[in-house]
Amino acid sequence: MKKFFTLIACALVAGSAFADDIVLVKQVSAEFSRKSNDNVEEMAPFKSTEWINGEQIAVVQSRVVKDPADADLSDRLANWCIEVVNEEVRTPKLDDAGEQVFQNGSPQWDNGADWDAQFFISLPDGVYLEAGTEVTFKMRVKAKNASIFNAASQAHLNPGGYKHWDMIGSIAFTTEWVDFEKTWTVANEQDGTNTIAINLACDGANPNVYYFDDIEWTLPVPKVYSWKEVFSSDGTDATPFSVKYFRNYTDEAKVVDGAIMVTSLDPEKDYSGTYYYSDDADTEEQPAVLGRDWDTQFLIPLGVDLAGGKKFKITFKYKADKAATAGTQVHTAAPAAGFIEGANHSGPGTYIHYQLLGDFNFTTEWQTYNEDLSIVTTVPSQATEEKPMGTVCFNLEGLREVNNYYFDDIKVYVDEEDIPTGISSFKAEKATKTIYNVAGQQIKSLQKGLNIVNGEKVYVK
User: What is the helix (H) or strand (E) element at residue 426, kind and residue range?
Assistant: First the structure.
């Protein structure tokens, strides 16, 4: 019999599968009753969403119901569980023989996508996954109709904030309760996420009704770091920031109304059809059509170089003139602050890895990422000592049209253990700063080796 639903904040002693000094916390522990629907706080981790033609039409609290198998039992004796209803009807894509088409092992459809209906399970506010840690997730599942294809899971930063295509693997639904358990080491692609998204529009059994029960999510207590601010900008100085363009349009980052602004394309040019560009300044222009998210990139310096496995925290405000989605990548440091790259592929922020902070949904209103500084980001292993990460790169061409993007109140923090001796915090709001190299020449930004900043020696490794 179900007793109650609770979020447990107390620590649990780790079992033998973990190191002796690791303490675990059961962050989510859910056993439902008929009263669960009346408690908003208890139901907060569990949400569902439906998408129609790519547009989100509903985000609602999932409903707790009596287990259909216990329909004849009283409310007190019956088992209670979460119910998620998916009403979308999928049409399979068929080959000439009338068989469903598969691509890379996944069934193909003539309409919609597997993620048109999703069920979200989130960690409590302020709790996020950290790469390299071992976590355990458990639940029981069943469905009204047995699924033909398993339901995939995604890693999200809050419900709907997609970051990676896999979190806990795929889940099989039958008409009887099945125990699901997954213990895994958090990957770099899942770093900083807090939500499991389960794709429920996944097979020909749709429409379908899905049931979830006895949900548990256990994490180790996060490591305590000694954070030190290594970069900050209040939006009054654009010189520390670099911009990359691949379509023969070059413009620098600007200060507009106390924020850093980056324009994605030339406002004076018509991009409605085919236009000309060159990927190399030494070759002839070739016709092309807009189609790459990274054709305009904006780079935020970290203040230090970091190899894979190192930790940092970043917070910033962001908005745009038009709603748009921008992905983030791992890049090296820019050789000169304020540098603008045009057609060629060299220059500031050489590419390292395609994924870092996940996708950002820009709106016309200011939003703040990581305002409480609880999200710790792990540098992907693709960054090495020889090719370290030095910038956070934003891909700003997803909208495929002219748009202005704004950034403000940027701060970067790094664990003191990872800061080379002699490095000082670089604050971009100090517009009066002066930087010289060892030859006595004034430069725009910190460079590798010895720098003289406002009369003080600052060494960059």
Answer: strand 426-427
What is the helix (H) or strand (E) element at residue 41, kind and residue range?
helix 40-43
Q: Which residues pair with 261 in a beta bridge?
A: 254, 406
| Those residues with Cβ within 8 angstroms of residue 365's Cβ, 6 or more apart along the chain or in another chain | 319
- Identity at 22, one-letter amino acid code: I
Q: Averaged over 174-200, what is the pLDDT?
A: 93
Q: What is the pTM of this model?
A: 0.62
| Paired tokens of 188 | 């770099």
Q: What percentage of the chain carries pLDDT values higher than 70?
A: 74
Could you tell me which of 84, 69, 111, 103 has the C-alpha nearest to residue 204? 111
Q: 243-253, pLDDT tens digit by residue?
A: 877 655 667 88
* Rounded CA separation 249/125 (Å): 42
CA distances 257 to 232, 235, 317, Å, are 18, 9, 14
CA pair distance 179, 378, nearest whole angstrom: 32
| Highest-confidence segment of 54-68, 72-86, 331-345 | 72-86
What are the chain's domains?
11-220 (2.60.120.260), 227-460 (2.60.120.260)
Closest CA to 151 of 186, 118, 102, 111: 118
pLDDT above 70: residue 16: no
